[in-house]
Amino acid sequence: MSIRRKRQRPVTSRAIIAFDLDCFYASVAIRARPHLKDKPVVIVQKHLCVTSNYVARSRAKGAVQKMTPVSHALQKCPELVCIDGSDLTPFREASLEVVTAIRAWLADRAREAAAMSNTKPPFCACQRLGFDEVFIDVTELALSEIENGGAPFLFRGHVFGRTDDDELRRLLMVASQLSHQLREYLIAKTQLTLCAGISHSKQLAKLAVNMNKPNDQTVFLPDQSAEYLKTLSPRALQGFGHGTHDKIITWTKHNGKHEGIETVADVLQLFGDGQDGIRRLGTILGNEQHALHILNLCRGVDHTEVLDSGDAPKSISAEDSCRSCTTMEDVSRRLVVQITRLVSRLRSDGQLFSRRPRALSVSYRFRGDGFVGTSRSVPMPTEIVSVCCSQQNKAIPKAIESIKKTALSVLKEHAGVQEGRTFDLTLLAVGASNFSDSDSFKGNGLTTDISEFFIGKAKRIDSGKKKSSGTLHHSQTPTGVSNHVQRTDSKERSTPEAEVRCPICNSKLSGDNLMQNNHIDKCLKSSCTKRDKSAGSVKRARKSLGTRTLDSYFSKRLQR
Ligand code: DGT
Ligand code: MG
């Protein structure tokens, strides 16, 4: 998925809006059950409250904070309505609904602005973070509205801080108007309320979102932001995660520095002394660039852009964090549940975004590993292609079986999880990533994916010779070694020793996988050239193979 970059502007004259939906899971659940509107509601996952509506927050007086055990919350507030939130589908769909509505509104507004000024529509990068956060860079749109003379120079909502920069103030005034109008539109369209923060950087916009909750907005004027940031906990800065925090704490303990890092000012005290500080923090974090970014955040300097990456998520996963999983039977059962969820989501994803995943990740965690799990990535079994691209329901069981086989093999090879071994897993997860467009393997416009392309080829050859007896599978071994094309019997798959034939010329293939692929690659190219000798069609055929030969494609996979 390509990422569109906004035209570079001076970072101090940008207008960025951060949206955060109010008590998101609870709002979505209540929208589907309007009779609960005024009741205290919590959303429960694995006996823990993951969020609650604002009625519950005020009635239970802090007793239903995130990750509170539901039993504890019920003791404090017996009238709580608990809703199971283990199925994320409604939240995922609502999230997509909101982003789609935001994009539609921005596009309309940009078109209107362009029509008035007779120019190209201004581009607003829109970046979704998680389910309920969205960043929008409205600089171009706000400037265009200012040029068109239609925008009132007034702040909407709360204003925090100050600025002496008149141009920035005007820009943020218009951005606050845009934010207000967009929020009103979203509330009317989705019945979900949200907060907004408006500032010249993602960091300050994000901090502003949380200043007036719920259903309100705040403009953060940046002149004294550095002073304000010093008083915050460093964990309040987006980008200053658990890992960074823990590494610094460990370092301070080892170096006899007992001050701790309660506030951003403490971090600057330890590392704010120019290049030396960056180097020291870089050594602790293992990356000087990251150290510089962290110290910049502490000083209120955030140059990161809003990246418009489309609505499609970069990865999709399904996980099961369990108390204990000690037998292969249990592993297998849990895997099937998660893989079924993953495949179902990939099917919907394919329908929405016309793409398919190329990598499968298998994650696991053993008891005693704390929060740290291990993840391994291998090529995604190609059976998923028919599910994502051709939306074939009958292909689903095959895809699940194939992914399960791959996942079990990864667990055996990398984690030693197998029959006869003792293990205790507390996490099992499967994920899909590295998406490519479903038509990236289109075989000369004949079919939708490469496996179908081969099957189609084979069928044409077979029907020509009137001796069709089996089907062709494009599959790979669990370890990622591709058994590129295997002829199978109608009852069971062929063993590696079985005869393999080229789906294009039908000749018997010898040698290892790469040699076979090499042959098919050549055959494929020559058959393309024969059918249509124009240079364009060869180019298209090559492009359809991802600009590489099949050989290099699969040898790359082997190297992974
Ligand atoms: P807000 O923004 O303070 O009005 O409340 P929420 O509920 O929107 O909280 P937020 O924005 O931090 O998170 C969005 C949703 O993500 C939230 O409704 C439930 C889910 N969520 C948040 N934190 C956790 C967590 O630690 N674990 C799990 N499983 N889900 C979480
Ligand atoms: Mg939220």
CATH architecture of the largest domain: 2-Layer Sandwich
CATH topology of the largest domain: Alpha-Beta Plaits
Q: Calculate the mean pLDDT score and round it.
A: 79
| Low-pLDDT residue intervals, each spanning 5 or more residues | 1-7, 439-498, 527-560
N/C terminus separation: 21 Å
Reported for the largest beta sheet, the result is:
6 strands, mixed
Instruction: Tell me the count of domains.
Output: 5
Give the distinct bound molecules.
Answer: 2'-deoxyguanosine-5'-triphosphate, magnesium ion
CATH superfamily annotation of the largest domain: Reverse transcriptase/Diguanylate cyclase domain
| Spatial order of strands in the largest sheet | 6-7-1-9-10-8
CATH class of the largest domain: Alpha Beta
Beta percentage is: 15-25%
The value of Rg in angstroms is: 28 Å
Helical segment count: 19
Question: Could you provide a short overview of the structure?
Answer:
By secondary structure, this protein is α+β, with helices and mostly antiparallel strands. The chain has helices spanning 24-31, 54-59, 70-76, 89-117, 139-148, 166-190, 202-209, 225-230, 242-254, 264-271, 274-285, 288-298, 328-353, 384-388, 396-415, 450-465, 513-531, 535-544, 550-559; strands at 16-21, 41-45, 48-52, 68-69, 81-84, 126-129, 133-137, 158-162, 194-199, 217-222, 316-325, 355-366, 374-379, 425-437, 471-476, 482-488, 500-501, 508-509.
